[in-house]
Amino acid sequence: MNSSRFPISLHILTLLHDAKGGLVSSDFLAGSININPVLVRKEIMNLRKHGFVDSKEGKGGGSFLAKKASEINLGEVYRAVRNNNILGQSKNEPNPKCPIGRQINQHLDTLYSDAENALIENLSKQTLEDFAAKFE
What we know:
With 136 residues, the protein is mainly α.
């Protein structure tokens, strides 16, 4: 996967689920994930924007799930955090005089789109509750 955003977000959501509605600080989350709290706060802002998380700011503040874990679909989480095609993108422009080169990018786009749709379909069969149950 091109990005660490999905595993970071899923880690955050799983920790928030484990807190059972309690407020969880970005420092605690960052300590578990072993990343900078600034990166955690950035992901929390995105998860809040998509309705998965809510936060209370200030002293004693923290984050919590905005809805039940059974209502959080992993396919929706993936869509909320993805920023690149799962298989990457070609950085070069192939030779337009080549019969393969002039068509390769459009066929790769279709291939990549089909693969990503299959991933999203698989993730959409699972909820955060299903995923979190693996840790009990």
